[in-house]
TrEMBL record:
EC number, as in UniProt: 6.1.1.7
Keyword Cell membrane (UniProt): no
Keywords, alphabetical: Aminoacyl-tRNA synthetase, ATP-binding, Coiled coil, Cytoplasm, Ligase, Metal-binding, Nucleotide-binding, Protein biosynthesis, RNA-binding, tRNA-binding, Zinc
Chain residues that bind Zn(2+): H567, H571, C669, H673
Gene (name only): alaS
Reactions it catalyzes: tRNA(Ala) + L-alanine + ATP = L-alanyl-tRNA(Ala) + AMP + diphosphate
Name this protein carries in UniProt: Alanine--tRNA ligase
Domain of life: Bacteria
One Pfam entry name: DHHA1
SUPFAM superfamilies, per the entry: Class II aaRS and biotin synthetases (SSF55681), Putative anticodon-binding domain of alanyl-tRNA synthetase (AlaRS) (SSF101353), ThrRS/AlaRS common domain (SSF55186), Translation proteins (SSF50447)
Coiled coil (residue ranges): 736-763
Length: 880
């Protein structure tokens, strides 16, 4: 067995499969592109969906990759187990309808045991096989020569996660030796494939040979696929003879840095969990932020916020009280930056985001600590020794205050936590998250129809709006047919087409299919790309269509021109965003239609009105400059040399199109564009908003759409001007300002009158004094505007010493408020306002609290106010 670094092992794996004719696919972004079913890319196969379900045909059916992945379904186990991580790399080789079981098994064995490769001892390898998969068992035994004592039949070896490709799998285990045994001999899990520490699963080979259909039946796949997965962290731990994944070169440099920051020794520390959690979580934060995800309160942003806060809390356990995570970023970059250059390129942004979030959490901790102390003081004042689970959950959910910190504070005060209530609230939150999350189906049921269409069907719409073309495939109900009748919805493929297929954010073209006499044969409703990029026309048939006939295709030219103006405007806007907000801004999605454009981008602050105006001004300036929009077809490498922006997460072929607007903007793009910027006419931003985890959205219009919007706004302003009886629009701001001042003056007058009315009423109220047990009491309902006026009346009562005890009630729009105030004489005789308010507030179906001399409550039962006020005397008598 060789001793290899993680970088050497990763490269060795990719080199091996490159020798076997595989295309080495670059790791995709952790943020899924055009896949709403996934929160994160969580496996190597997740990026292969389009190939496995047949929607896209790869240039090479053999693919290998090292794919960064995130799984966060069991965060609490990170650092506790030997191999649980939030971020991991999955080494994998894939066959899309090419080789199958025999080659996959032979190559796996060669890579693991070959002297040129990992050179593992074959005697230490054990194999599990699905019992019904006789073929796989035979290959391992008869062709590879694995002894039957090392072959285990396992019922669980069938990969199936719902509809789509599925099939048996075979797993390879490495025997780490007796020293790693954590179970007694004879234990039911003490075998290769069981839950134990001795036999470590290092590679899983999945043989996708069935379609799991919606009716829960299984049918043979038209194209059988291979999907394998080998966790880099696991195999590195084997090659470096490490007790756990954390003692490898992927994590130890981070742990050593934490040692320096904390002054603690990892090896001597009894509890190593905190070191491991920090080392794991900082890797996830670095990679996720680099790929455009940002901390927030929802979705993947919430995951990042949670990981960062867990890291901070574990830092506190190691006596690190100040922000420290940014100091770990360069270490992660040094370990991973060679193979993943994006983390190095984005390191400044990563550090900025982490530092901002970490500082914010330290402020949150301070606020949460104050809130815990308030709750504790109130509990002790009421003689209670248990804090409710609901209060603890609110601290956790609203203030971001961790349970373990709450435990520390209340333990010092001899107060316990109602964990049952807390767990109930946590379960409610989990279910809310579960219901909000879409089902993570692996892929669609595979269809062989389009993947079998290996015909040349060229898009000629960059230069032509219409063309005569032969209909070469007519598809109805997922089958090829020879003709289509009027009224039917079918799909058409021509040998060439001017219709743009929906992709890259640009919608598909619409238009008409005509015969030689210009009769309308079909209406094109949309166009989508086939597995080989064929424009597939979705049409409504008007007159009978025949396969192999020649038809005249004509796009809706006016609609296309509007789309092109909006598309070119997105390129101008993208650059304006980078110029004004910063180079960290990246496109996170777009929708280019004829009516408007929608542009999503990564940014972690709200965009100001001033910044929006500056962007709009900059884009319009480029439009006025009438710059030529040039297109160059070149290789991906030359495009990058030109400085063209490649959208992260997008997959580009060997040849790409670069859209250049002078030196101002250069982007890789397959869409259609205007010839010069002046064709755009006008650019107008309609709105800017946040849409999720560090992602914002601009909606804008150009040319005809912008003109229509401006015309609509002017119409509203003109109508308002007439209603105000003004001569011109210019007078409108002054008039509105004047009306606002008038309204403010009226409101102030109303406030003053309400206060005077309440004071006048109070004069009578303060005369209604009763005596209970030697204490003078005022307990009355009063007509005041709000709680603020009640407090002012209480201040007046205090200044004039009207009575020993004051209780005032207020009904307001179906709700009720109470205040209670006591003099020093009353409080010295064991009468407390907070006790009084807690006693009488149930009558109004409410609650409250406060100090010994002043307390308040709110409720939703105004009918109970009279009873609450009457019960004041009863409370005084009972207390004394």
């Amino acid at each position: 067995m060789k001793k290899l670094s993680s970088s050497e092992l990763r490269q060795l794996f990719l080199d091996f499969f490159k020798e076997k004719g595989h295309h080495i696919e670059k790791s995709a972004s952790l943020v899924p592109v055009e896949d709403p079913t996934l929160l994160w890319i969580n496996s190597g196969v997740a990026t292969m969906k389009k190939y496995f379900d047949g929607s896209v045909k790869p240039e090479n059916p053999r693919i290998a990759s090292s794919q960064k992945s995130i799984r966060t379904n069991d965060i609490e186990n990170v650092g506790v187990t030997a191999r649980h991580h939030t971020l991991f790399e999955m080494l994998g080789n894939f066959s899309i309808g090419d080789y199958f079981k025999e080659e996959a098994i032979e190559w796996a064995w060669e890579f693991l045991t070959g002297e040129k490769w990992l050179a593992l001892d074959p005697k230490k390898l054990y194999i599990t096989v699905y019992p019904e998969d006789v073929e796989t068992y035979s290959i391992w035994r008869d062709k590879i020569g694995v002894a039957e004592s090392h072959l285990i039949q396992e019922e669980g070896n069938f990969w199936d996660i719902g509809e789509g490709p599925c099939g048996p799998d075979t797993e390879i285990f490495f025997d780490r030796g007796e020293a790693f045994s954590n179970l007694p001999e004879g234990h039911e899990e003490n075998y290769p494939g069981g839950e134990n520490e001795r036999w470590l699963e290092i590679w899983n080979l999945v043989f996708s040979e069935f379609n799991h259909k919606a009716d829960d039946t299984y049918a043979p796949l038209p194209n059988k696929n291979i999907d394998t997965g080998m966790g880099l962290e696991r195999i590195v731990s084997v090659m470096q003879n490490a007790p756990t994944n954390f003692e490898t070169d992927l994590f130890m440099p981070i742990i050593h840095k934490v040692e320096k920051l904390s002054g603690k020794n990892y090896e001597k520390e009894k509890n190593k969990v905190s070191f491991k959690v920090i080392a794991d979580h900082i890797r996830t934060l670095v990679f996720a932020i680099s790929d455009g995800a940002l901390p927030s309160n929802e979705g993947r942003g919430y995951v990042l916020r949670r990981l960062l806060r867990r890291s901070v809390m574990h830092g506190r356990r190691l006596s690190i009280e100040k922000p420290f995570l940014t100091q770990l970023v360069p270490v992660v970059v040094e370990i991973m930056g060679v193979y993943y250059p994006e983390v190095s390129e984005n390191s400044n942004l990563i550090e900025k985001v982490i530092l901002s979030e970490e500082k914010r959490f330290h402020e949150t901790l301070s606020d949460g600590l104050n809130k815990v102390k308030e709750i504790v003081e109130e509990l002790k004042a009421n003689g209670q020794s248990e804090i409710s689970g609901k209060d603890v959950f609110q601290l956790y959910d609203t203030y971001g205050f961790p349970l373990e910190l709450t435990e520390e504070v209340v333990e010092e005060e001899d107060i316990t936590i109602n964990y049952t209530e807390f767990e109930v609230e946590m379960q409610k939150q989990r279910e809310r998250a579960r219901s909000a999350r879409q089902a993570e189906n692996s892929m669609a049921v595979q269809s062989s129809l389009l993947s079998e269409v290996s015909v040349d069907s060229a898009f000629i719409g960059y230069d032509h709006d219409e063309a005569s073309s032969e209909l070469i495939k007519l598809i109805k109900n997922d089958a090829f047919v020879e003709e289509a009748e009027p009224g039917e919805a079918v799909r058409l493929i021509f040998n060439e087409s001017p219709f743009y297929a929906e992709k890259g954010g640009q919608v598909g073209d619409t238009g008409l299919v005509l015969d030689k006499d210009n009769n309308v044969m079909a209406e094109v409703l949309n166009v989508k790309s086939g597995p080989e990029g064929q424009p597939i026309h979705e049409v409504k048939v008007r007159n009978k269509l025949h396969n192999n006939n020649t038809y005249h295709l004509i796009i809706d030219k006016h609609r296309r021109r509007l789309i092109e103006r909006n598309h070119t405007a997105t390129h101008l806007l993208h650059q304006a965003l980078k110029d004004i907000l910063g180079s960290h801004v990246n496109q996170a999605g777009s929708l280019v239609e004829d009516s408007q454009l929608r542009f999503d981008f990564t940014h972690f602050n709200q965009v100001t009105e001033k910044e929006l105006k500056e962007m709009e001004k900059q884009v319009n300036q480029k439009i006025l400059e009438n710059i030529s929009v040039e297109t160059v077809e070149t290789t991906i490498d030359k495009a990058k040399e030109m400085g063209a922006i490649a959208l992260f997460g997008e997959k580009y072929g060997k040849h790409v199109r670069v859209i250049s607007i002078n030196d101002y903007s250069k982007e890789l793009c397959g869409g259609t564009h205007v010839k010069t910027t002046s064709e755009i006419g006008l650019f107008k931003i309609l709105s800017e908003s946040g849409i999720g985890a560090g992602t914002r959205r601009i909606i804008a219009r150009t040319s005809q759409g912008a003109y229509q919007w401006i015309d609509e706004q002017l119409s509203v302003l003109n109508q308002t001007t007439k209603l105000m009886k003004l001569q011109s629009l210019n007078e409108l701001p002054v008039k509105v300002e004047g009306l606002q001042k008038e309204l403010k003056d009226i409101n102030q007058m109303n406030e003053s009158l309400s206060a005077k009315l309440a004071e006048a009423q109070a004069e009578d109220t303060f005369k209604n004094i009763s005596t209970v047990e030697g204490f003078t009491v005022i307990a009355e309902e009063i007509k005041a505007k709000d709680m603020n006026q009640l407090r002012k009346l209480a201040d007046k009562w205090k200044q004039n010493d009207y009575s020993d005890i004051l209780v005032l009630g207020l009904r307001n729009e179906g709700k009720v408020n109470l205040i209670a105030a006591l003099t020093e004489k009353a409080t010295q005789n064991n009468l407390k306002a907070k006790d009084l308010i807690k006693t009488i507030s149930p009558y109004i179906k409410g609650g409250g609290g406060g100090r010994d001399d002043f307390a308040q409550a709110g409720g939703k039962n105004p009918e109970g106010l009279e009873k609450a006020l009457q019960s004041v005397s009863t409370w005084i008598e009972a207390t004394l």
